[in-house]
Design a protein that fits this description.
The protein has 374 residues and is an alpha/beta fold. 40% of the residues lie in helices and 16% in strands. It contains 13 helices and twelve strands. The protein has a seven-stranded mixed sheet with strand order 5-4-3-6-9-8-10. Helix 6 runs parallel beside helix 13 and helix 9 packs antiparallel against helix 10. The radius of gyration is 34 Å and the shape is globular.
Amino acid sequence: MESTKGESSTLGYKLAGVSIDDGKSKPVISTDRLLGGRDMIKVVLLVTTVTLSCLLFFKSANNPLNMVSLLKTDSCYSSKTINETSLETVQKREPVSELERVLMNAAMEDNTVIITALNQAWAKPNSTFDVFLESFKAGLGTERLLKHMIAVCLDKHAYDRCIEVHPHCYLINATDSDQLSGPNRFMTPGYLKLIWRRMDLLREVLGLGYNFIFTDADILWLRDPFPRFFQDADFQITCDDYNGKPSDKNNHVNSGFTYVKANNKTLRFYKYWIRSSRKFPGKHDQDVFNLIKNKQFVVKLGIKIRFFDTVYFGGFCQPSRDINVVNTMHANCCIGLDNKVNNLKAALEDWKRYVSLNTTVSETKWNIPPKCGY
């Protein structure tokens, strides 16, 4: 407590029985009273301030932030302090690998990415990847999703082409890229190696804490699929044939389009799925999934699995019967790269004609053969 020098008012203090009259003149210290009253107060205040400061620093020795919380005087300052410390503690760490760098650059706010896989044959001009990208641009509400899509390249040729046309490309370090780069028809050794290499990459993505949509590159993206996802499911997958029951494990699955949330259940499930491939050599991921989906390990894991309706997530096996609501169309049940590309282009033209009408249609017709390449 202090008074301004030269103030006209008189302040009276009583301390230890000593009466002090504070006028305009400076107080005089009386030798028979140890200290003058006003100076006594100054000394007491000084000692008190020093003591409190020492106590504050002592209490904050183990946690310097305690000092800030003890000294805060109003809500505005408090808010500012929390915001500043949050920026320091929540700041994203630097990526430790090239994969993590690509994931961080492409991820949505909730750490979700879209992933596809390419090899040289699929990445060539006018091949699968070009039709895939075109579908995002022709789709409704899908073009904006391209900035979250990562193309995983299985050979250097695919990577070189990818970086020409897309911002997020990742090259898998593969010593056998020559075997992975060809057309790799269904169930050939090269096809199986490609599939399981892809599965291991997805396991790694989950381990880094990223949710993902995996989509084959022979899929047309026609509408934003996120509104169709089950909010409470851990693992969601499309079907070649859908039986009308989204939780029925007897659905005939197709792993070309999956939506997976990153958590302990899904990570352990992917590890088990990949491990199980060694028990069933010569099987692709869909076959192994069907072999393990009812195993005790999966049941105890408690992973919630849901299956997508082909009305929304259609394919050449079971085309969507309603173009007014379809989200994706997959060139499944179609053998041969040329057949896939030609029929994907035909289906995309069907879509473009529908969009140009700008109205709901009563009948859906796809110009694709019932048995593509068989």
